[in-house]
Write a structure and sequence with these properties.
The protein is mainly alpha-helical and 233 residues long. It has eight helices and no strands.
């Protein structure tokens, strides 16, 4: 009988591994992914949806890029406008799934525009009515600060009971109304807008409900309970 040593394995059970070769040198290795994709793109077969859709996208993309470069190279202001529009479009695309934030930002921009316009109209009217009045535009900065306060206040609440974008919309509507009142009563515009924005943030943020609940509990403790009265036996 032939016995194999305990420390050795028989030749048939040994696994022989060839020396490592680069993938490109191995027989039957698939070529790089760029060549088949290029072939698909150039052939434009009707049943290949990827290649058929990619060609018009490339054409329109090159045309859009050329148009943007031509517009930006006209003047310095055009270049700044193109860059700002590109950054705005990129920001909107990144926040495409955050609808409440987009709604709040859009309404805040509109509120800033309307309040600035109303404050400028009010200042111009007071300038023509009174020769000694000066056009300062301080109310516009107050309205813009309140618009930022509404935007930040809606997102500062950790557990907001409602939709944050709707809260900003309500606060900005009240702010625009207050700026309209400020056209006729300039001393009351900014304070009225501040109280309105604060009230909306308190009501929509749950602060008013929490204060009401605490007040009810406090009055319940102070009020004598009917259970403490001696019952007739």
């Amino acid at each position: 009988m032939s016995r194999t040593p305990s420390g050795r394995t028989p030749p048939a059970s040994r696994t022989s591994r060839p020396a490592g070769r680069p993938r490109a040198d191995r027989p039957g290795a698939s070529p790089g992914p760029a060549l088949p994709l290029m072939r698909r793109f150039l052939r434009q077969e009707e049943n290949d949806t990827w290649a058929v859709r990619l060609l018009p996208r490339v054409v329109f993309g090159v045309a859009a890029l050329y148009t943007v470069i031509v517009l930006a190279s006209r003047s310095g202001s055009s270049f700044v406008a193109v860059v700002a529009t590109s950054f705005l479009g990129l920001a909107l695309w990144l926040m495409r799934r955050r609808t409440q934030l987009l709604l709040a930002l859009g309404v805040s921009v509109l509120a800033v525009a309307f309040t600035g316009y109303f404050s400028a109209v009010g200042d111009a009217a007071r300038r023509y009515d009174d020769a000694g009045a000066t056009v300062t535009g301080q109310a516009a900065f107050g309205y813009w600060a309140l618009a930022g306060m509404a935007l930040l206040g809606a997102w500062m609440v950790k557990d907001h009971p409602g939709r944050r974008g709707v809260t900003v919309v309500l606060a900005d509507v009240i702010l625009v109304i207050a700026s309209g009142v400020g056209m006729f009563l300039p001393e009351a515009g900014v304070p009225l807008g501040f109280l309105g924005v604060l009230a909306v943030l308190a009501l929509r943020g749950g602060t008013a409900k929490a204060v009401t609940g605490r007040a009810r509990r406090a009055f319940g403790r102070v009020r004598p309970g009917k259970a403490t009265e001696p019952a007739d036996s």
